[in-house]
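Project standup — Tuesday

K.O.: blocked on the structure for the chain from last sprint. Re-posting the sequence here as requested.
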Amino acid sequence: MIRVDKNNFILETKDTTYAFRVTKSGHLEHVYYGRKISLAKNLSEALEAIVEKSAFCPGSSINYTQDDLSFSLEDICLEASGQGKGDIRESFCELVHADGSRTCDFIFDSFLLKDENPYLYTMPTSYSANKLPAHLTVVLKDKYYNVSLELHYFVYENCNVITRYTKLINNSEDDIRLLKLMSTQLDFSEKDLVLTTWGGAWAREMGKNTTKVTAGKIVNCSRAGISSNRANPFVMLSDESTTEDTGRAYGLNLIYSGNHYSAAEVSAYGKTRFVSGINPDGFEWIVKAHESFETPEAVMTVSNEGFNGMSQNMHRFVRNHVVRGEWKYKDRPILLNSWEAAYFNINEKKLCTLAKAAKKCGIELFVMDDGWFGERNNDTSSLGDWKVNEKKLPNGLKGLADKINNIGLDFGIWVEPEMVNANSDLFRAHPDWALGIPNRPHSEGRNQRILDLTRADVQDYIISSMRDVFSSANIKYVKWDMNRIMSDVYSSKLEAENQGEVAHRYVIGLYKIMKTLTTEFPEILFEGCASGGNRFDLGILSYFPQIWASDDTDALYRVNAMTNYSYGYPMSTVTAHVSNCPNHQTLRVTPLETRFNVAAFGVFGYEFNLPDLPTSTLKEIKEQVKLYKAHRRTFQYGDFYRGRCDNLHEWTVVSKDKSEAIGMLMQELALPNTKDHKYFAKGLDPERIYEFKNNPKPVSIKLFGDLINMIAPVHIKNDGIIQNVVDKFYKLPGEVESYKASGDTLMYAGVKLHQAFAGTGINDETRVFPDFASRLYIMKRK
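H.V.: unblocked you, prediction finished:
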């Protein structure tokens, strides 16, 4: 709901209030954003208690006007800041007028209220399929130049989310050089907020970084040409005392897949400013006379119920108002991907053998990864040449897909449409179709170059070639990869003065391609990928309902990464696979049970050479698939809650009606002589009774090495023939946890689990819980 009274503006969701007003000088003063507060109908009177009072301008600052010496724009909370009139903090807008002036002074002109979905001409936005969000447009006009700003606000009441984007309109007869235009600005009257960002690199995405912003400026940004694994666009602001379940937490994100920028800055007067939008570094856009420029949509939420409360808001918003299409709420299939089983060394016979083994395990979808086209035997050639390698697939894509279908599986495929190898027919025919500076050596990544998506002819080629591939066989799934970042960012199609537009125009071109293909092939489940999580953002999720979170499938890494993704993204968007050990990225060995228990909370699949596995492992995988199918709806679309995240990792996912919940407890390293553990559930119906059970599993005697000789009647050599034979026919019983308790008991008292093995004895009441061990707990409401 949006209320307006005498130039006072109140945006209200179910649990939050956002307030700003027009000052005497005509600027928009930000007043409040936080938990919902009661404000009387007379908003001028209601806001008077919480607006900042200023009688004199601070020393050594600039008076906006000599007619009013009571304030400086440097010491007021604003909705949108400019340059040149005294506010020397992080700016919202920077531009150069035709006369060379950089001063901009945007003053309130008008507003418009309407219930409607957001709309941008060049980028995706949020949307509502049912009740339209309330939309407030505030028009600001520069006092001295014929330029205006439109600030667009949209209120998603049930999700406690407000979105914003900005439009700059050049109504003059001269061109403007736009250097910076943010999507959102959020000013706070206090400092010492904690900024949480997420960064890393390939195979270690989404590392958590927290900084208390006491002075100066902290920046989270990407110059990679994509949202990047170096700095995810989702960030949080919180109080230092905020926990997972208590305290104030803000979640902030962008619906954008390119170079992004967010900054938190503390002013000389103890105020904090947060801005977010397109990265101004390397950006310059010529806004021609009577034309406009629009920013990506920014997403904001706040909760007074800690980080879990904030995450629930974000999860509801992304699931309901970002993800779209046939797969929005549809059960995602369990897949087997060929990559770690075969890499580039594929052929029809090998792929069919993998598929047959997958079918026996209950897997539903087989995905052929890289290596099926051109002369693609390694990563040095053939990207761009999307013709089947008939030596590997003599019956083509259709022939292979038909065989996979006859086995009883759906068929999926890997593509990397945005890329080209210099060693390809496409590059030899159209070298100017790749980004790069003409007649200069190009700095490549992964032996490949990036196609120039700013060009309409390149966009048309990608759409046409992918249309041919997707329609050539019964393809149900597409993994869309993008395996490098940008370098030598230059388009031979654009003039010199427009080269600062290349990175953003690339993203616009990408969105056009994705929209066209997902519209033409709505039945295909598309999965985004960029060397793993190098482009995990809401822009991609506007077209592809899930994204490969990381090429690193190691369970210890993944439990941390998936925890961190969960702060801003629902688990229905995060794909997670079980792979072999030693892990291909870390060489770490973790239990198959733990690899499953972690991956099951995401969109689930496997990366195994199944025919090489022993019968016992295949049996365990079959049991995992059966368990996942029984609880798939809760895993994929339930409400996800974080518990502890240290040496013990604790997750709970709860079905929408709270009739079922699944918990997970994982240990990184076993602590000697530490036998007592608790599991605390979250999100349950506190007054209802739940049946709490684990999934008992037999314990291999090989886990104990030669310690087994303490109880064995004969000597058993560690890893010897006798040990292997005994282990094949005899297992130690696993512990059984079975209780009935109220939801509030499970959440607040916690379940005291069976004693962990602590070196002093073992029986069927002992929980064998060594390094990297984990357990799943199933809770059913009675």
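K.O.: great, moving the ticket to review. The chain has a mean pLDDT of 96. The radius of gyration is 28 Å.
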